[in-house]
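# nightly structure sweep
# worker-07 picked up a monomer target from the shared queue
# config: single-sequence mode, recycle default, output format = structure tokens
# input follows
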Amino acid sequence: MPALTSSAGPWLGWALAWLATYAVHGTVLLGGAWLASLVVRSPGVRDALWKTALAGALATATFFVATAPRPTPTVSELPRRLVRADAPLPQMRPFAVERDTALPPWAPRAALAVWLAGALAGLARLEHGRRRYWRAAGARHAVADAEAADALRRLRAAAGVDRTIYLTAAEGLQAPAAVGFAEICLPAAALEALTPAQRESVLAHELGHLARRDPLWKVAVEIAAAVFWFQPLLRVARRQMVECAELLCDGFAVRVTGRRRPLVESLGVLAAAFRPRGVAAAGFGDDGSPLLRRAARVMDATRAPAGPLPAALRGVLAAAALVGTLAFSPGVPPPAPAKRVAFRALTVERAMLNADRSGVARVGAGGVLRLAEDRGGVRRELTVRSGADGRPAYDYRENGVPKPFDAAAQRWLTQSLNDARAR
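# output follows
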């Protein structure tokens, strides 16, 4: 894949290279996870595939751009032979600089501005949805029900979750939800509508979300879909990860409580109030978790409760996916550094430099010295002829604009000629 040109500027070129590489690697990894999910039915495997694809695209794009060999620009040089300062310079045939085929100067900035505008708009919509969701749910308050608190303690002990879990309730909440890192929030009505066994199954399900860090993963995929809005497969990943999380947490609840029917009954009791969760919340009402399929899977006694892929297998899967992506997927390397010096032409006819090579001591009749050079993005051109009074007449320009041949210009002439002699 071609490299960006240095005309984009260092930081801008690196940012665009990273975004372009992420677009390629994200398509490879997320597309692979999507194709695999059409064949693989295990929620644990599918969950591992989608999480590997989500995090892996960020990792491989960063690794590729950070370690990609940067193209070395071709630098045109003056001939290595340089005569003494007090001798006439021989005539040297002009030659042209090899130029990069670059985008218009405004194109990289326009591309980054379009991406940034879309990302900010997506993040703003995400934050607006979060605020609206919790505004509708109302204030959360600690649950004073001793029986529910005692059930949560037993479930934590059975599941091996040793961190403190806060149990709250909200009047306007439509369905139970795991919030953030360590909170389970229940609809206030659910505390009365559910039997103790059903409520315990609901708490076990939500505890499964917290144990798996599902609210945090949901925040990550929501932010990724907003920031990388140009990657439509992130929306597929969001739906698939939610569905896998619900199935896996159903299995978690069955394993921890040892009962299937109360969980299915609680689905029926709460079904009328289901709606998609907000950001940083995961639970019963998430989109992408068809209730009939979930209920049938839970009640199928011939099938073991859905469980996660073992950690060792997840590690092998992640390593294989990342190494394969880096080995076989193209990327966009960061831009090459700007050309240090590119001498375009040097012509000398009957002209002699002064002792320190900062100017021309003498120009014969009909003689001329021409030097044109690109350095650091500035094109400098110098033409010296014999003036009307017989003294050298200087025509010095920077990027085509006439400038006085002052001390800075003299230093440039000396440096250019000395650099050529050093090569």
